[in-house]
Amino acid sequence: xxxxxxxxxxxxxxxxxxxxxxxxxxxxxxxxxxxxxxxxxxxxxxxxxxxxxxxxxxxxxxxxxxxxxxxxxxxxxxxxxxx
Length: 83
Prior knowledge:
- This protein is mostly helical.
- The chain has a domain at 35-83: Orthogonal Bundle (Guanine Nucleotide Dissociation Inhibitor, domain 1), CATH 1.10.405.
- It has helices at residues 3-18, 42-48, 53-63, 76-82, and strands spanning 28-29, 32-33.
- The chain has a two-stranded antiparallel ribbon.
- Helix 2 (42-48) packs across helix 4.
- The longest helix has 16 residues, at 3-18.
- The two termini are 19 Å apart.
């Protein structure tokens, strides 16, 4: 993982730390509104942070414990809860 990717991942982890799943207002970051976790998929959330594919694989499989990539096309809410 390169230096720039580490900065992007740090931003994503800070978002995860600040998100409260029952409060939609915490789903926003600065002036940039992130996707609605109930209607948008996890791929769109990862895209909002410009994460690389290796990082996405690590987050989805090693951290959230998904066994395949189908979670990327499902609502992000469940995966965010696992992360």
